[in-house]
């Protein structure tokens, strides 16, 4: 897939996930979460090419400009969208699948200082509510929803709903809409 097609795909993903989106031009010019993802792709390419200092320098510049910190070593899939991105932090060994959405204040962080895998893995189609913290080398299964302000430190099966501090998982019911789950008062702290 070419770079222009990838940019177009990201804008379409934002339109699908943000009910306030008014048009593609507005999204492309005014969405800092999208700008952070686009910049991440440049810095990730440099990181993989061995230009680690330059990649980190670029990621810090992006953080300063957008309020979103994505380590260039993280691995991020297609159609990733950060809505109201201020305060999002994504660690170096985080892995994010396709069609994932994060709201503001989300942390994909580590819990230990030793080397190796330290950050979470999010499966395809995961949605993470505002202020949630997902910590450590855990896996959140595809199609799961993490409620606002949840603190997740254990693996979750696909199609889970995770809420609370510490978060507890329940199986997602058939037909439960992701947007409805993220805005339901019983799933917020």
Primary descriptors:
globular; 19% strand; five-stranded parallel β-sheet; 5 helices; alpha/beta; 189 residues; six-stranded mixed β-sheet
Oligomer: single chain
Mean pLDDT: 91
Class from helix and strand fractions? alpha/beta
- Outline the low-pLDDT stretches: none
Give the amount of beta strand, in percent.
Answer: 15-25%
Shape: globular
The SSE string, one letter per element, is HHHHEEEEEEEEEEEEEEEH
> Radius of gyration from the CA trace?
16 Å
Give the biggest sheet.
6 strands, mixed
- Helix count equals 5
- State the share of residues found in helices, binned by percent: 25-40%
Short account of what is shown:
This protein has five helices and 15 strands. Helix content is 32%, strand content 19%. The model has no long low-confidence stretch (mean pLDDT 91).
Question: Would you mind describing this structure in some detail?
Answer:
Strand 14 (160-163) and strand 15 form a beta hairpin. The termini are far apart. With 189 residues, the chain is of the alpha/beta class. The chain has a 6-stranded mixed sheet. A 5-stranded parallel sheet has the order 1-4-7-10-13. Helix 3 (32-48) packs antiparallel against helix 4 (52-66). The longest helix has 17 residues, at 32-48. The chain contains 5 helices and 15 strands.
């Amino acid at each position: 897939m070419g770079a222009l097609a990838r940019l177009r795909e990201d804008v379409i993903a934002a339109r699908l996930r943000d009910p306030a989106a008014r048009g593609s031009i507005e999204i492309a010019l005014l969405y800092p979460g999208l700008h952070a993802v686009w910049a991440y792709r440049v810095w990730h390419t440099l990181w993989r090419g061995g230009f680690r200092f330059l990649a980190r320098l670029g990621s810090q510049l992006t953080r300063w400009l957008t309020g979103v910190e994505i380590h260039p070593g993280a691995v991020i899939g297609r159609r990733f969208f950060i809505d109201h991105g201020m305060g999002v932090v994504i660690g170096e060994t985080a892995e994010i699948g396709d069609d994932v959405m994060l709201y503001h204040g989300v942390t994909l962080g580590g819990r230990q200082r030793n080397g190796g895998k330290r950050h979470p893995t999010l499966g395809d189609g995961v949605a993470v509510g505002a202020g949630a913290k997902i910590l450590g080398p855990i896996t959140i299964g595809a199609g799961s929803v993490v409620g606002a302000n949840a603190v997740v430190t254990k693996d979750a099966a696909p199609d889970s709903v995770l809420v609370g501090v510490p978060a507890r998982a329940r199986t997602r019911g058939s037909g439960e809409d992701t947007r409805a789950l993220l805005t339901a008062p019983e799933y917020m702290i």
